[in-house]
Design a protein that fits this description.
homodimer; about 140 residues; alpha+beta; HIT family, subunit A; 6-stranded antiparallel sheet; 3 helices
């Protein structure tokens, strides 16, 4: 999936970091906390409608990103969600949480103040870490 | 898992409807929309930390409840989430959504006004439907 196939709202809100076997890997531009969005390559909209083997593989990719959040970035908790009420294309939120983070203990949606932007160096470091830990193939970072 | 093993906050917020192979099945008391909560029997807190075969089985149970929401209750969309920032015991939200519902298009957390209570008859009907479609074993409904 090229960036052009990603929903424009996701591209506006996120950096496109790379590709896993089943999902594109995006990162919310708000750097208040690490909030990844995995976009499975499917025409279906709800993750629980996927055939079981695809669902299992998509969730395994979410689990790999979750492990990166905990083991490399040091988060104590990970929130995961498939909502898609605003952007219909299937996408899964995989969000690093810690007691006392800017939205704690609320869910992030509607509760996360702007927390600055990632530098190019930070994005490249995240790409390299995800490549090592999850096998993600990085894509060139696009200017905002 | 008896009701006594469920977190008191979950029991305060929900009706305990029954048991699947991996999860207890709860229903939020707010009847504004059908909002199920599945509680896997595990000491872990984050669903993405489960071993793969357990994760797959828990998600299969979520998918069965999602199919019930769409095929029997007529919802067009299902939101699924594992958060647990307030109640640490692992639990998964499986929520029937439709364009124009009382929280649409926001996520339900913090955005769903009180929408009345389920009658005993409605709860028994949901139990019977879930038993037929998902194999859930009903438990006696407790008074609030």
């Amino acid at each position: 999936m090229s960036g052009a196939a990603l929903h424009p709202q996701l591209l506006a809100d996120c950096h496109h970091l790379g590709a896993l076997s089943r999902c594109e890997v995006l990162l919310q531009r708000n750097a208040a906390l690490h909030w990844f969005i995995l976009v499975p390559r499917t025409a279906l909209q709800d993750v629980l409608d996927l055939p079981p083997h695809e669902r299992n593989e998509v969730l395994a990719e979410c689990a790999a990103v979750s492990a990166f959040l905990k083991q490399v970035l040091g988060y104590t908790k990970v929130n995961v969600a498939g909502l898609g009420n605003v952007v219909p294309d299937m996408h899964l939120h995989v969000i690093g949480r810690s007691a006392g983070d800017p939205a704690w203990p609320q869910p992030v949606w509607g509760n996360l103040a702007e927390g600055g932007a990632y530098s190019g160096e930070q994005l490249e470091s995240l790409q390299a870490g995800l490549a090592r830990m999850t096998g993600m193939l990085p894509v060139p970072i696009q200017a905002p």
